[in-house]
Amino acid sequence: MDNVVFDRAGHGEPLVLIHGVGHRRQAWSPVLSLLTPHRDVLTVDLPGFGESAPHSGGYGVEAAVDMFGKFFREHGLGKPHVAGNSLGGLLSLALGEAGLVRSVTALSPAGLWTPRQQRYALSMLRTHRLLAERIPERTARRLAATPAGRSVLTGMIVGRPDRLTTQVVMEDIRALAGCPGFRPTLEQARGGFRFDGVVRDVPVTIAWAERDRILARPKAAELRRIAPEAELLVLRGCGHVPMNDEPQMVARVLLEGSSRAM
C-alpha cells in the first residue's frame, strides 16, 4: 500500500477522520482535544494531499475504498467509525456502503450534487487552487494577518474566517497550492464522484453546514434515498469546512454519530 501519513491519539473505539479535496489532516485539529478523551482518533492525509505520497492506484472512489480497507487491516482497526468532510464525506458514505465501517458521519459530503451543482463546486475549487498557486507569499501573509483579509482568502470555505489564525491560513494555502492529488481528483470528479449507492446496516449521520457556499444541501428525500435511516442535521453558523467554525458542535456531532453504533 502507498505510504499514507496519519496521526493517532486518544482512547476508545477507533474513529477515522477524512478531509476534503485540497485540504490536509490538520483540518481536524480544532476538534481533536474534544474527541480524544472518548475515541482513538486517526486523522489521515489522503494520497496526494498533505504529506501523503500520490496514490499509484488512482484517485477514484473505488481506489480510495480499497486503500482504506487495506489501511484498516494494516493498523488493526477492524471496522472503525469513520467521518469525513466534503470529499471525505463522500468517501465515508462509500465505506459505509462497502460494509467496512461501524458508523458514518458525513459533513457536507460531496457527490450528492446535480450536474449543475457539480460544475459550480468544481469551478469554485479550481478558483481557490489558482489563487493559492499564484498569490505572492508576502501578499497572502498580509491578508491572512487581518480578519478582513482572512475573509477574502477563506470566506467561501469557512463560515467564521475571523476564528482562523494567520498560521493556519498560510499552511492551508501552501497545502492547496502544492498537493499533487488535486488535479487528478477533480478530473475523476468530472466523470463521476457521484454517490448513487445506499448505506444500510450501519448508523449514518449527514450534517450539512448552514452557510455552505460550495455545496448546496440536497432535499431530505434525496438524503433518505441514500441512507434511509440517516440522522439529518444542520450545522448552524458553519461554512463548508465547519471544524474551525464551531468545534464543540462538530465534535458533539462526531461523538453522537459514532455512539449510535455502540
Short synopsis of the structure:
The protein is an alpha/beta fold and 262 residues long. It is built from 10 helices and 7 strands.
Description of the structure:
With 262 residues, the protein is an alpha/beta fold. It has a single domain, classed as Rossmann fold, CATH 3.40.50. It is built from ten helices and seven strands. It has helices at 29-35, 61-74, 87-97, 115-134, 137-144, 147-154, 166-178, 182-191, 220-226, 247-259; strands at residues 6-10, 13-18, 39-44, 81-85, 103-107, 204-209, 231-235. The protein has a seven-stranded mixed sheet, with helices on both faces. Helix 3 (87-97) links the parallel strand 4 and strand 5 (103-107). Helix 2 crosses helix 3 and helix 4 (115-134) packs antiparallel against helix 8. The longest helix has 20 residues, at 115-134. The radius of gyration is 17 Å and the shape is globular. It starts with 5 loop residues before the first strand and ends with a helix.
